[in-house]
Amino acid sequence: MNLDLTNKTALVCGASQGLGAAVAHELAMLGANVWLLARNEENLKAVKQSLDISLGQQHGYFVADSGDPEHIKQLITDFLSKGKSIDILVNNTGGPAAGPLLNTSLEDMQKGVTAHLLTAHTLAQLVVPGMKANKFGRIINILSTAVKQPINGLGISNTVRAGVANWAKTLANEIGQYGITVNNVLPGYTKTDRLDYLFGKQASDAGTTVDAIVEKTISMIPAGRLGEQEEFAAAVAFLCSPAAGYINGINLPVDGGRVGSL
Ligand SMILES: NC(=O)c1ccc[n+]([C@@H]2O[C@H](COP(=O)([O-])OP(=O)(O)OC[C@H]3O[C@@H](n4cnc5c(N)ncnc54)[C@H](OP(=O)(O)O)[C@@H]3O)[C@@H](O)[C@H]2O)c1
């Protein structure tokens, strides 16, 4: 099985911690040069320093906010203008604020659309021409199992993830012929700061303890446990590899079997 990503360059968004950072590690271990994008420069530096360089990989980072697609466009345009290409794009950013849909302000909904959909669209428009020229490209969107089954209390996320999922499927149809795949990977409950935030909010909303929320959550997962970041990242890395060239336009849950539908 060909998992070799040497001489490939990946841009991994939301990569200063959590799932994005875990994906960056896996891609680097398969030989890719990895460029990280997020807001916190200290964390970006630390992740960059920790990436594998044993195969001569060269890594870097962009300090940027996914709520500002124009700035990201400038940064990536500048990067590409130096003769570089991006072979693998991992769209990812922080999850939108939790809360019921009807209470959501237009401003917060707009923020979710911008950070998740408009930034992904901007990046795809920038990197796809190079992917087409190289006849190889991988676009991965880190979404949520909410794409298959909306999660109560995550109104903005449920709405925006579905939009990105259909955006991705449409793009997959349009550019599959050029050796480019576009796939969505849907994390279930995976141990990161985001999950700590959600469990903390659920506990305070329900007037109970975080331990009680964790126990209830685990009872709904056939695997009987929460997911590890590395398990999620391994699925993404496989989809980025040459071996996964005929997998296109899918939603892949990595959720220990929690989602009830196929
Ligand atoms: N973990 C789970 O169980 C789970 C389950 C379902 C879905 N998800 C979704 O998967 C995605 C990643 O989750 P995670 O658990 O890894 O979250 P996380 O630990 O909160 O990490 C989020 C990453 O995104 C970056 N980020 C946040 N806001 C940003 C912005 N405005 N611009 C640029 N970068 C930004 C953060 O870095 P900076 O702060 O440095 O910018 C960080 O690197 C999220 O969308 C989350 O909702 C996670």
Mean pLDDT: 97
CATH superfamily (homologous) name: NAD(P)-binding Rossmann-like Domain
Q: Look at the helices and sheets and give the structural class.
A: alpha/beta
Strand residue percentage: 5-15%
Total of domains: 1
Q: Enumerate the distinct ligands.
A: NADP nicotinamide-adenine-dinucleotide phosphate
CATH class, please? Answer: Alpha Beta
Q: Figure out the total of helices.
A: 8
**Major sheet characteristics:** 7 strands, parallel
Please give the alpha-carbon distance between the first and last residues: 26 Å
Q: What fold name stands as the CATH topology?
A: Rossmann fold
CATH architecture: 3-Layer(aba) Sandwich
Kindly report the spatial arrangement of strands forming the biggest sheet. Answer: 3-2-1-4-5-6-7
